[in-house]
Write a structure and sequence with these properties.
Blueprint: E1 22-27, H1 32-35, H2 53-68, E2 73-76, H3 77-84, H4 88-99, H5 105-117, H6 121-130, E3 132-133, H7 143-146, E4 153-155, E5 168-171, E6 174-177, H8 183-198, E7 206-209, E8 221-225, E9 228-233, H9 239-252, E10 257-262, E11 276-280, E12 283-286, H10 288-291, E13 295-300, E14 303-309, H11 310-318, E15 324-327, H12 332-340, E16 347-350, E17 353-357, H13 361-369, E18 373-377, E19 394-398
Parallel strand pairs: 1-2, 6-7, 9-10, 12-15, 17-18
Antiparallel strand pairs: 1-19, 3-4, 5-6, 8-9, 10-13, 11-12, 13-14, 16-17
Helix pairs in contact: 3-6, 3-8, 4-5, 4-8
């Protein structure tokens, strides 16, 4: 029987766990930016495949509706950004993020600045997300412009904006806008900064982190329990980034323990949430080959300890006897295939209720055998970017755990 979740109220923004009842979530519906992807540029734009955009949109709409059906308020990045861009401060911040591109040179930089400054907020939103090709900038001139191919981008599209978890994460009532390691993704975080600082919905929001700091991405941040964070360290998030966020979280009183988890950097394991996500207050779904080898260091105000086995240290920090560990797949081959297809990347709507891709049959069966209700969604095209339901969602508001 489906667990019923009441109608979403305009709850105050904030999250103290991964599994408190989800009230408000931030998504980005894929659009024209995905149509910019070709075999020539998808690697440069950090997108793993070339999706069928219309089908990806249908799948994303079904994902959003599945959340609404369970009482979750769905917000969209593009709609929030357009409203925020009515404010001069947000326009200045968003345009500045574009013209920082060193490829432009001084002449083209000033042209792009003027062109974007004249756009209506709706058109500016489209340009910032979908990008601008050389042939589309009719007012362009100068050496950098002339030597571009007509299909080269003066303003890069943002196909990875689909993965809203990477750009920001809420820790208690603070918004931590992240600082991506990859240049092509930094503008995503800067657009989220413009939203949180200028949209009326988020008036008064206190910021815990921001772009331009040490490398940190939201896919590496798990809210294990109130006051307890686990943060993966690898190519996308550095030890310096973890230390910086931890200092801020301790100082603001929104965390007392941070578990730092080194992640072996492979193509399918770039973030902590590609190998481990929470599905209940005491349960995680995890990629078996890493389950026994995951270790962590524990940061508190008192200092650093470790390394220690991650799941043991996590249970201790959370104040529970043990974490239940649910394996991806039923055998090594199935586990590897379903981890590649984001079997570990679940989004909890509430305790024992999680969204997962329908294609991961064995993992979903194991979740249900462990008492987790699985809301299955299609992801044949959405998954081509190598991200699952958790990657595609940034919880804005969850009920506090009791």
């Amino acid at each position: 029987m489906s667990q019923e979740i009441g109608p979403a109220a305009r709850a105050p923004s904030g999250c103290d766990s991964e599994v408190g009842r989800l009230r408000t979530v931030l998504l980005h519906r894929p659009g024209a930016e995905l149509k910019r992807l070709t075999p020539r540029n998808n690697d440069q734009l950090l997108f793993d495949g070339i999706p069928w955009v219309g089908r990806a949109q249908d799948e994303h709409d079904a994902f959003a509706q599945a959340l609404r059906d369970r009482g979750v308020e769905v917000l969209y990045v593009a709609e929030l950004l357009e409203r925020a861009l009515h404010e001069p401060a947000a326009r200045e911040l968003a345009i500045a993020s574009v013209i920082e591109d060193v490829r432009l040179g001084q002449t083209l930089r000033e042209i792009v600045r003027g062109y974007l400054a004249d756009l209506h907020p709706a058109d500016l939103t489209t340009a910032l997300i979908a990008g601008i090709a050389q042939r589309e900038l009719k007012v362009g001139y100068g050496l950098a412009y002339q030597l571009m191919d007509e299909h080269d981008f003066v303003v890069d599209p943002l196909p990875n904006l689909l993965f809203t978890r990477d750009s920001s994460v809420w820790i208690a009532d603070r918004a931590a806008v992240t600082s991506p390691s990859m240049t092509v993704r930094r503008r995503e975080a800067q657009l989220l900064e413009a939203i949180y600082t200028s949209h009326p919905r988020f008036a008064g929001t206190q910021m815990l982190y921001g772009p331009g700091r040490e490398w940190l991405e939201g896919g590496d941040v798990l809210l294990l329990a109130p006051g307890v964070l686990a943060i993966g360290v690898g190519q996308r998030t550095t030890p310096a980034g973890v230390e910086s966020l931890a200092r801020n979280a301790f100082a603001d009183g929104v965390a007392h323990t941070v578990l730092v988890v080194p992640i072996a950097q492979e193509r399918a394991t770039m973030h902590l949430d590609t190998v481990c996500t929470m599905v209940d207050t005491d349960a995680v779904v995890t990629y078996p080959p890493l389950a026994d080898s995951l270790a962590c260091y524990t940061l508190t105000d008192a200092g650093i300890s470790g390394p220690a086995p991650f799941f043991r240290a996590a249970a201790d920090a959370m104040g529970i006897a043990a974490l239940r560990v649910i394996d991806t797949g039923l055998d090594p081959i199935t586990a590897e295939r379903e981890q590649w297809d984001d079997g570990n990347n679940t989004l909890a709507i509430g305790p024992r209720l999680a969204v997962a891709y329908e294609r991961n049959i064995e993992t979903n069966a194991r979740l249900e055998a462990a008492g987790i209700e699985v809301v299955r969604i299609a992801g044949s095209e959405l998954g081509s970017g190598r991200g699952g339901p958790r990657c595609m969602s940034c919880p804005i508001s969850r009920d506090a755990l009791r």
